[in-house]
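TA notes, week 10

Several of you asked for a full example with nothing omitted. So below is the full record: structure tokens for the whole chain, then the designed sequence directly under it. When grading your own attempts, check the secondary structure regions first.
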């Protein structure tokens, strides 16, 4: 949402979502307790020939590398995961899910550049120490490439939020809602949130690159 629309919006109350294992507080974009959201995102649709649009110069100058990275995320990671899921589910054809997620077919897969600006300790306290409340992703899987700043947490089956430690040379994978639907609930969406970093990292802006496979 553009900043001027956020400023003009009148909604300031948090939305409470209650589930079987937890209560999630969703902070509106316009802020809560006077604190504005601290996230900026920029999405780049997959290069399937159906989503052409002008890009900022810094991206346009590197668009071939960005496309190569986008395609590699899909073919080298997503497709291998889909084959693994098919094997685990004992599907008769291990390429079934791959055929349902072809890169060059029109779809909503996209890259996302994400920036969370650091907040003061006082600001974090006012918003429950959260950058982003608990949620699931809509697609099949999400790939997270992130800097080594502790912030991501996942909700375990006991209803406890656990830190997801960044590991060098790895990609964090979230399983998502579409995969849950496709597998009849056998593979469940990961409920995750972005917590304010620990005190020794709280002054660092959090950066991430994500690939959403839909």
């Amino acid at each position: 949402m553009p900043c001027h629309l956020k400023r003009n919006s009148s909604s300031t109350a948090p939305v409470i979502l209650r589930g079987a294992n937890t209560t999630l507080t969703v902070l509106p974009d316009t802020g809560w307790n006077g604190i504005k959201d601290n996230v900026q995102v920029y999405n780049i649709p997959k290069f399937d020939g159906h989503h052409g649009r002008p890009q900022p110069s810094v991206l346009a100058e590197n668009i071939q590398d960005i496309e190569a990275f986008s395609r590699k995320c899909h073919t080298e990671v997503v497709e291998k995961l889909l084959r693994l899921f098919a094997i685990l589910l004992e599907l008769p054809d291990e390429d079934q899910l791959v055929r349902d997620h072809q890169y060059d077919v029109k779809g909503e897969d996209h890259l996302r550049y994400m920036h969370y600006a650091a907040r003061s300790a006082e600001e974090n306290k006012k918003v429950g120490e959260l950058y982003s409340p608990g949620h699931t992703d809509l697609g099949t899987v999400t790939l997270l490439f992130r800097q080594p700043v502790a912030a991501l947490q996942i909700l375990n089956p006991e209803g406890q939020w656990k830190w997801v430690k960044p590991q060098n040379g790895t990609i964090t994978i979230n399983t998502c809602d579409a995969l849950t639907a496709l597998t009849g609930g056998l593979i469940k969406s990961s409920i995750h949130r972005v917590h304010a970093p620990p005190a020794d990292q709280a002054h660092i802006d959090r950066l991430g690159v994500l690939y959403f496979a839909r």
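The radius of gyration is 18 Å. Use that as a sanity check on your answer.
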